[in-house]
Design brief:
It contains 2 helices and 3 strands, in the order βββαα. By secondary structure, it is an alpha+beta fold.
Length: 74
């Protein structure tokens, strides 16, 4: 949780998390920056390994069967 924060939807459909900032005179609201690079990278690495183990052998098998069908039809 971020103190003094709220969610705002922009006209283009995107969502921003805004935070009221004490001490700023003209625009007392800032966009909150949420670090997402590390969690996204770790989740990607975990899932890519799982996908390689589970799906890649099937995909390679399907591709090999398709190539064999193409060669046999000639």
């Amino acid at each position: 949780r971020i103190p003094g924060a709220f969610i705002q939807q922009l006209k283009n459909g995107r969502w921003h998390v805004m935070q009221r900032v004490v001490g700023k005179n003209r625009y007392p609201i800032d966009v909150v920056k949420i670090p997402m690079a590390v969690p996204l990278t770790t989740a990607f690495k975990q899932n890519i390994e799982r996908i390689r183990r589970e799906r890649l052998p099937k995909e390679l098998g399907y591709a090999l069967q398709h190539q064999l069908r193409m060669v046999i039809k000639r």
